[in-house]
Design brief:
elongated, alpha+beta, 488 residues
């Protein structure tokens, strides 16, 4: 049961003291304003004491109308002063806790059972900079940061239409993390919006420190390699997805925004595609699709072909592969597994260590795996070349790094232990996994299956802007077309 504020300022202050305990950053100060006892409550570091005192002293020195009661003082501060205040006032202790931890100041007046909320936020945060994981040659250099309000302002600056809606809610019992639901009211399908709100309201998490925590609660249950929810740290990309009728979720403390519905072909798009020439963007996109399949299939195909169908290799290459394998102690598929395993260890070490040391790790690893391991006869040169090529191809499409890495290992095992039959079965199982995924009521493989001719202009290839601008793609229109097709 919520504790309602009392008319006694002392009782309210003691209730907050009991709530926050002996926290050294919880600051309270008793003051008198217009002859009435008042109390200021804030958290140091989240609120600016200097800013608060400047505003309060200004108000105290400019009171010209006679104030005869605490309620009159409350109404005077709320309605007749230029102090920046929140639109809502505090009526219970839990509301005071939410506002205090958000960086505002709660102002009690003795004799009034409500408190004022003054906007004195002054939190330290990282400045807006270029995103580290989605680099572009052209376009915006801005990336999301950890402060939710700043991220919302970055989106609002790019989408200035009156239909942009941003709704906030909290999740995480212990952290009470604020998150924002961003969408275009005219483009977002109502059923998608209702489903998303219902799922977010049912999130049962003790802590919420990153947007990735929400993915299992938003997507459907069950194991899937690929996800119908994407992420981005670029405000321009998030704005583009909102203009397609999709929903973007921002979480306080995380620079990564969730985007859904997320379709398979969107993993191969980048903002550079729309700033470059159409023919070059189409070439790069085809290159990404090729890199995706190379990263998954190439090591398994190499192991399978060398072990079960070596006659498909040219004689010169076959002799070199055979000579390399004779000088190594492990079977071919175990060599390939070992090489990929070492490369993943190197990547993880370089990622987690400080940047100056990370470069040294990469250099040492290159010498050990690329030179020493082959000279010592632990790994064959063809295996190292294939593993390095597939690792590079994996980095071409970073948004699907996790499923690609695991699937590559599975294909190596299938090709080495089961041969061509195992490769074919696993490949079709992967296709069924991709085609069977439903992203918030929309097939993950859209517009490949079900086929949508209009959306194909921006899937495998990218048409010019004159063509794309005639009928821009949106989720709402796609759902309407699906409904018409099902009706017929």
């Amino acid at each position: 049961m919520e504790q309602i504020l009392s008319t006694s300022m002392l009782e309210n202050k003691l209730a907050l003291r009991e709530l926050f305990g002996q926290s050294v950053d919880f600051y309270t100060k008793d003051v008198q304003l217009a002859g009435f006892d008042c109390c200021i409550c804030m958290f140091e570091g989240l609120s600016s004491i200097e800013r608060l005192w400047i505003m309060m002293l200004d108000v105290a020195s400019h009171i010209q109308t006679p104030i005869n009661s605490p309620q009159q003082l409350y109404e005077y501060l709320l309605c007749q002063t230029a102090i920046p205040m929140e639109t809502k006032t505090v009526s219970c202790i839990s509301d005071a806790q939410i506002y205090l931890t958000a960086g505002t100041t709660v102002f009690f007046i003795d004799g009034v059972d409500r408190a004022l909320v003054i906007s004195t936020q002054s939190m330290q945060f990282r400045s807006v900079g270029e995103p580290s994981g989605e680099g572009n040659l052209r376009g915006s250099r801005e990336g999301f940061i950890e402060i939710l309000r700043m991220n919302i302002s970055l989106l609002r600056r790019l989408i200035r239409t009156d239909s942009l809606r941003i709704e906030t809610m909290t999740a995480g019992q212990r952290t009470q993390t604020e998150l924002a639901l961003c969408y275009d009211q005219k483009l977002c399908p109502p059923q998608l919006l209702r489903y998303t709100k219902a799922q977010l309201e049912q999130v049962d998490l003790p802590v919420l420190l990153d947007s990735g925590y929400l993915i299992p609660f938003l997507g459907r249950r069950g194991f899937r390699f690929f996800s119908g929810i994407g992420y981005t740290e670029r405000p321009d990309r998030a704005a583009a997805k909102i203009c397609e009728g999709k929903i973007v979720v921002l979480v306080n403390g995380s620079p990564f925004a969730l985007v859904f519905p997320w379709l398979f072909y969107e993993n191969f798009q980048s903002m550079d595609d729309y700033s470059s020439k159409a023919y070059f963007a189409s070439f790069i996109r085809l290159l990404k699709y090729a890199a995706f399949f190379i990263a998954i299939l190439f090591p398994g195909i190499f192991v399978c072909a060398a072990g079960y169908t070596p006659e498909i290799f040219p004689p010169e290459l076959l002799y070199k592969i055979a000579a390399a394998e004779k000088s190594t102690p492990l079977p071919l598929f175990l060599e390939m597994m070992l090489a990929n395993f070492l490369l993943e260890i190197i990547r993880e070490a370089g990622l987690r260590l400080p940047k100056p040391i990370g470069h040294s790790v990469s250099l040492v690893a290159a010498l050990i795996v690329g030179d020493a391991a082959t000279k010592a006869g632990l790994l064959g040169i063809p295996v190292v070349i294939v593993a390095a090529l597939t690792t590079i191809c994996t980095f071409v499409v970073p948004s699907v790094y996790e499923p690609v890495t695991v699937l590559r290992m599975l294909f190596i095992l299938a090709g080495g232990l089961l041969g061509p039959a195992g490769m074919i079965v696993l490949f079709f199982w992967m296709l069924l996994d991709i085609c069977g995924l439903n992203s918030f009521g929309i097939p993950y493989t859209t517009p490949i299956s079900p086929f949508q001719s209009n959306a194909w202009r921006d899937v495998l290839l990218r048409m010019g802007w004159r063509t794309l601008s005639k009928k821009p793609f949106s989720i709402e229109k796609f759902e309407q077309e699906r409904g018409d097709d099902n009706a017929t």
